Amino acid sequence: xxxxxxxxxxxxxxxxxxxxxxxxxxxxxxxxxxxxxxxxxxxxxxxxxxxxxxxxxxxxxxxxxxxxxxxxxxxxxxxxxxxxxxxxxxxxxxxxxxxxxxxxxxxxxxxxxxxxxxxxxxxxxxxxxxxxxxxxxxxxxxxxxxxxxxxxxxxxxxxxxxxxxxxxxxxxxxxxxxxxxxxxxxxxxxxxxxxxxxxxxxxxxxxxxxxxxxxxxxxxxxxxxxxxxxxxxxxxxxxxxxxxxxxxxxxxxxxxxxxxxxxxxxxxxxxxxxxxxxxxxxxxxxxxxxxxxxxxxxxxxxxxxxxxxxxxxxxxxxxxxxxxxxxxxxxxxxxxxxxxxxxxxxxxxxxxxxxxxxxxxxxxxxxxxxxxxxxxxxxxxxxxxxxxxxxxxxxxxxxxxxxxxxxxxxxxxxxxxxxxxxxxxxxxxxxxxxxxxxxxxxxxxxxxxxxxxxxxxxxxxxxxxxxxxxxxxxxxxxxxxxxxxxxxxxxxxxxxxxxxxxxxxxxxxxxxxxxxxxxxxxxxxxxxxxxxxxxx
Length: 536
Ligand code: XMP
What we know:
The protein has 536 residues and is of the alpha/beta class. The chain has 3 domains: 30-213, 3-Layer(aba) Sandwich (Rossmann fold), CATH 3.40.50; 222-409, Rossmann fold; 422-523, GMP Synthetase, Chain A, domain 3 (2-Layer Sandwich). It is built from 14 helices and 20 strands. The strands form 4 sheets. It has a 9-stranded mixed sheet, with helices on both faces. It has a 5-stranded parallel sheet with strand order 14-13-12-15-16, sandwiched between helices. Helix 10 (350-356) links the parallel strand 15 and strand 16 (382-384). Helix 5 (222-237) crosses helix 6 (250-263), helix 5 (222-237) crosses helix 11 and helix 13 runs antiparallel to helix 14. It is globular. The relative contact order is 0.13. Residues 1-27 and 357-363 have low confidence and may be disordered. Xanthosine-5'-monophosphate (XMP) binds next to loops.
């Protein structure tokens, strides 16, 4: 569904990460990353894909048979635990018997060391931040690196004795074991993080591991994704019909064009007006979709039922669940009215999967993104999520590959639950109207300043507080709004955008003058983490 505008990953993969599905998929060479809870796990996945190799994240304790299916290499991520912590996450030892190369990063190296009979000790000093690294010269894992290179460390525990059959392949500038390896088994460990940009030749080390050691060619690209995904959709859907939620955002547009290419008119795209859209969204969206994408779109006016369901609800998770359930009910009704519809397609992306399902290993669910965690338990339609293995920027590349216009692909993300998660507190038609006006002004000014394409996502949030102001000679007591704009690559991390003061001034002056009921504008200067992009 609409998560999508924004979304996630394409998932044609036969991933073992989500048992709701996994059928829209073909077997392909992949790298599996076992997640021990590191904040960098998604970065490992991204970097590997940037090397032209398809990668997927699974829980640290995934079943070895599931892990091994179609897999050419395994990576054990870092994590916040100490191997000595009670209940510390440990990989299933079966993964070391599958004949597949393994690369352990940071905690992953320590967990591998422990599992294979080496010794990990609590370090007397922590290594954190940039650090010199001296690789063993001539080892293929470090081909192309200088004798001294800078890496990024973040650990307390350390490997003091590698497991039998392993040797030390490199040390940090202060003499600690920073890399170990067993060439016969193709098992390697790195105490530093090759996935972060602060590690100078991190990408080269990953390339060496993938291409030279595991022998995986560079063969994953948006073009290969399109071909494979179309085949996979056809194989799964057969002669069936599919309803899909089309919001006009990037994800749902890309997904619809992909599905349309795969099954033609057996795709029924539905645009649901849930009353939580941006100003004029319905009109703009329908126009674009019909004209530019050549899609016939059914429009469903569901404003009343969504807003009634949300009345009086303040808890963000409850809002998400209510919206998720309501969306599915609308689709079930539409599917029934059309007769013979078996499937519902959603534009779920990989960050949703990583954040909402327990792929995060030991770390907790942050938000139930409505097209994943917010789904009701029981659904009469089978779900297909063709973008479920893609990051947002990859969706845009796939969209370009499909010939979708840059102005559709360049739209800022908009969350599936819409303005409901940008109205902190109770969602009422009046508050939606106030927010729509304020948001439209902010976006217009950002566009006028030529900044829209420099910003990953910008929007306005309506706060549940009122403040005192003075307008003319009158005292006012009105709403406060916050303007949010961030830089990001895939929504997993974000930094607040340094908006020029004159643009902030125009936004603020116009909102206060033109939007009745608002007398104060703030600018949100928080990054993710520790904040999130949306406020709820
Ligand atoms: P957060 O707030 O989790 O947002 O930092 C990361 C990105 O995801 C978008 N987002 C959603 N998209 N359904 C969606 O389709 C959702 O439930 C949802 N929640 C957040 C958010 O706009 C940002 O781009």
